[in-house]
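Please decode residue identities from the backbone states below.
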């Protein structure tokens, strides 16, 4: 680390067609976790790059290359011993890190990380709809279709609610319990692509 030299690298097997973009790896429990264009997620040793285990987020279902796009460009989310991941035209999936396996999956299509808050799992889908599941029963809680084709950003928690941005630079506050919009405000940004935690420190709604 002190010299800046590359210690290790990993290249996944690319499918014939992918969605443009890359995922950002995270560090968890001393390991590196990343998702890939082939719709898989991998856990690597930090120091050596050894692949400890990997798993599909979803499987190819279609007959054409477009239908078989299952890229994952979003960061996985780790809460205690569980890991959450999404992919395009695929699933929202939960993995048990101790057991090194997928324990639940439900159909969803997303290019941004899921949000876990208030015992809810929130998925911003690529078409602008928002899905919510109970983190206890794993049943769907609500579906919000007010933002179709609004090119929503990833969601973050704000005062116990959901905060997302859109293509026109609006910030929307959504009730995490029922999916109802509580308010919105125009930001200085022309387009909100990714919501960062630092943004929450700079705005007052």
């Amino acid at each position: 680390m002190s010299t800046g030299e590359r210690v290790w690298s990993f290249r996944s097997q690319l499918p014939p067609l992918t969605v443009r973009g890359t995922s950002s790896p995270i560090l968890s429990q001393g390991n590196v976790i990343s998702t890939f264009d082939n719709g898989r997620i991998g856990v690597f040793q930090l120091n050596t790059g050894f692949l400890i285990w990997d798993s599909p987020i979803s499987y190819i279902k279609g007959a054409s290359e477009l239908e078989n796009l299952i890229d994952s460009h979003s960061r996985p989310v780790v809460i205690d011993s569980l890991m959450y991941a999404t992919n395009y035209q695929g699933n929202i999936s939960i993995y048990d890190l101790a057991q090194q396996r997928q324990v639940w999956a439900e159909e969803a299509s997303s290019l941004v990380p899921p949000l876990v808050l208030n015992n809810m799992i929130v998925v911003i889908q690529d078409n602008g709809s928002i899905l919510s599941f109970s983190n206890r029963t794993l049943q769907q809680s609500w579906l919000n279709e007010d933002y179709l084709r609004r090119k929503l950003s990833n969601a973050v928690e704000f005062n116990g609610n959901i905060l997302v941005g859109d293509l026109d630079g609006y910030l929307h506050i959504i009730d995490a319990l029922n999916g109802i919009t509580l308010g919105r405000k125009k930001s200085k940004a022309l387009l909100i692509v990714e919501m960062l935690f630092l943004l929450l420190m700079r705005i007052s709604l």
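Observation: Residues 197-205 have pLDDT under 50 and may be disordered.
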